[in-house]
Amino acid sequence: MKYIGSQPITEQRNDKTANLDEMSVQEIIRIMNAEDQTVAISVQRALPQIEKAVEAIVEVMSKGGRLFYIGAGTSGRLGILDASECPPTFGVSRHLVTGIIAGGEAAIMTAIENAEDDAEAGAQDIEACLTADDAIVGIAASGNTPYVIGAIRRAREMGALTASVSCNAATRLSEAAQYAIEVPVGPEVVTGSTRLKAGTATKLVLNMITTTAMIKLGKVYGNLMVNMQATNEKLRDRVVRIVSDATGAEPSKAAAYTEQADGDARVAILMLKFAVDSVKALAVLELCNGHFGDAVRMLEKER
């Protein structure tokens, strides 16, 4: 881990914001914006690490394994946020991607800061849900959180695939994981407040992990969310647009087929593209384990 004196970089004072409390509102938001712009560059430097981790995670998930995130505080909440958005966005089971936070559900809304110091609790939380067929990503801005390190070490002993995301270099968490992702973002605008740049960097990396995994698992067609769940009027309209974009059908025709498909964009698209009924479309999707691209290719071969 990179240190200045006895503290990691994420805990150090930022010279650019030493007089933060004396700045005007305009000055504060300008410097925050300027610092935030450095985050994307830091993530860019970590792309080779991210690539290796995502490829390994995709391999696990393509064989039926699940993905777990585990973290404390902001890191844990970001993992839960990313996991909770996968079912509505990609139409997957809520059990496919799961977020775990130190201190349990109460810690989602209320800070339970001492929970992060218990390495054995992290190990026990993982033992309760993980199998050797799964993948887990430990998240810790400092890279030194005992709860997360304990979880990753136990997961590795169990034979699961382990990865990590931290915002310092050469951390203890990185040493514990098989695939380490390090995004050093430097000192925060407010000293030690890793909900800022470190939190932003973490969110960007988690976006990459699950989005790329879902694309490779066939939950996206082109760049269209064909697996999304249409749970309200706005999303039902979006499904119709997706069907229209994917097939070139007029919106009215796309809407009619979407209704026949019970709101499932995948089924409606297959019906329109290959002149099959919903029963056939669903059967092909099942044969392809829900991989939409494979379903398209199978029907193309049957033409």
Describe the fold and architecture:
- By secondary structure, the protein is α/β, with parallel strands linked by helices.
- It has 2 domains: 214 residues, Glucose-6-phosphate isomerase like protein, domain 1 (Rossmann fold), CATH 3.40.50; 70 residues, Helicase, Ruva Protein, domain 3.
- 53% of the residues lie in helices and 10% in strands.
- It has 14 helices and 7 strands.
- The strands form 2 sheets. Strands 4-3-5-6-7 form a 5-stranded parallel sheet, sandwiched between helices. The protein has a two-stranded antiparallel sheet with strand order 1-2.
- β5, α7 and β6 form a beta-alpha-beta unit.
- The chain is globular and about 65 Å long.
- The N terminus is likely disordered.
Short description:
Homodimer. With 303 residues, the chain is an alpha/beta fold.
Write the layout of secondary structure elements.
Elements: E1 3-4, E2 7-8, H1 25-45, H2 47-62, E3 67-71, H3 73-84, H4 86-90, E4 97-101, H5 106-109, H6 119-127, E5 135-139, H7 146-158, E6 161-166, H8 172-176, E7 179-182, H9 197-216, H10 233-247, H11 251-260, H12 265-274, H13 278-287, H14 292-302
Parallel strand pairs: 3-4, 3-5, 5-6, 6-7
Antiparallel strand pairs: 1-2
Helix pairs in contact: 1-9, 2-9, 3-9, 6-7, 10-11, 10-12, 11-12, 12-13, 13-14
